[in-house]
Amino acid sequence: MAEAESVAVWEAVRRRPVRFLWSAWPLRVWAYLLSGAVSGFAALAVLSVLIVTGFALSLLGIGLLLLTAAVVSAVPLAAAERRRLRLVEPAVPAGPHVRPPRPGAPAWLATRLRERATWREFGYVLLFATVFTAAGYAFTALLGLSVMLTVSPVIVWAIAPDTVMLVPGQPVSGPVGALPGTAAGLAGLVVSAYAGSLLAGVQVRVARALLAAREEPSDDSRVIELTRSRARLADAFEAERRRIERDLHDGAQQHLVALMMTLGLAELQLRGQESPASALIVRARAEARQALEELRGLIRGIHPQVLTDHGLAAAVDELALRSAVPVTADIRLPSRPAPSVETVAYFTVTEALANAAKHSGAGRVEVVGRLTGGVLVLTVTDDGRGGADPAAGTGLQGLADRLAIVKGRLTVTSPVGGPTVLRVEVPCSG
Amino acid sequence: MLRIVLAEDAVLLRAGLVELLSAVGHEVAAAVGDADALARAVDADRPDVVITDVRMPPGFTDEGLRAAMELRERHPGLPVLVLSQYVATAYATQLFGGAAPAGGGLGYLLKDRVGEVAEFMDALERVAAGQTVIDPEVVRVLLRQQGADRPLGRLTPREREVLALMAEGLTNQAIARRLTVTEAAVVKHAGGIFMKLDLDPAEGNRRVLAVLAHLRGVHPSV
User: Fold this and answer.
1) Cβ separation of A321 and B112 shorter than 8 Å?
2) Using a CB-CB distance cutoff of 8 angstroms, which residues of chain B are in contact with residue A291?
3) Binning pLDDT at 50, 70 and 90, where does residue B4 land?
């Protein structure tokens, strides 16, 4: 974008303001503006004829045809304008038009009229034929006057004995007397060099904005929309996990506890009686308890409540306590990241610890988490044998995908012989 | 007989607990469904012990636990037994890790413990009597953490066992029975634990301090 915005002639003035005057630049600028004044006048003539007669005849069908022609005439005019940019710019911008789907004039016309680019070009041509052309004539007048003044001694000499009046009422006595005119003319040329650069630069900007091919906005918005819908999907998944966790907690888990309580009461009733039912009740309670423990593990895997209530550090501490490999966790964050960030960070650590326990043969794992410059940086380092291939495990791939949604990054370095370092970076501000 | 205020939002469990507590001869002064009602019930008529769920309306996070801690500030020495579905030690740490308990029993039990009626009632009575009770499952998870850099890393396996049972609130006598050793041996191990965890023998409830040291060892930030 920065490259697109730099205007060559302005750059030349900015870089060497004095040397600019001796370079070819003033001549290029003048050529651009003068040719613009000429072609602009031609464009004005064509457009006014087409538009005025078009409106005049608009009650007849032919008028509409003429107005259409006015619009479409912008296409070749714009192409010429793009080429004319070569006078002051290093490169001609690419044309904005798409290729018509079929050969032939009707398809061409239909395509061009539907394109936004055509209407942008039409807008440019209108601006060019009026404002730029008027400015061009004013500039031509300034330049012409300056040239005349500069060469006034020669003129005075050439038309003698007739007299010339540079200032009304005061005839110039001779070529020497016209020298102040030369001074004024040279000053005028300097002014036209700089003013011309300014004017040409503005025209270059406008031309590039309206004539150059641009990335179709629909594409941009499609990418943004896609990212948004992915984020929405991830949020929906997260909400769904929480709902399932809540349902299990409020439903199955409570019923199992109630069942155990009822069994406890039954046991109480049978206390002191030698009955085979007592043994069965004890067994039933042990089974209910087993089910409850499994349910608890399942719920932790879906959405650990400790993460919601106590944050990432506490939840990772909990993972460390449950890990088969000894884990030191050191997560210090000044504040709690967004829930989506906490969740993805938590599940990344879960996966990393599971991998370390399963594949690496590690004897120790270290988890470190810090917030540096608005970015949550988590590293999981194990002292195992390394050689982990992130592409091989679907777990890591899935995590990378989930991280991408919160604009995070996952890097795994695992040289053969270890250590394996898994690094997660997630931006947390805004 | 104990006078109990009970807070549990699941109707099924609330009714079951009331039935269970009444069956063994306790009096349930109030059975409520949210943290505010719990605070009102306790403020109106201080019970012998409070039993509360961790997770309660309106936010369904740890309202019950926070209400219990606030109640203990307003009513120093109020015994509280917290029932939880979470093995996560962060909740126990939250409960025990604040200020050293100014007397008054404190307990953290998993909900499935209520099925083992005799043990549950035993734990409830110990809490009412001012002792500390931590669920054996939570203690087991805590004790799994090893490493010489933590205070617990300095304990021998036997001392860990004794500490775990102390955390459950058992007396030396009960620990000796459970481990089938003499009471003198338990006293010796307990001495070793207090020494290794840098606990001043002159301080009051050394068992509570041992458990807290334990929790702080896992969460140094507390």
Assistant:
1) no
2) none
3) very high
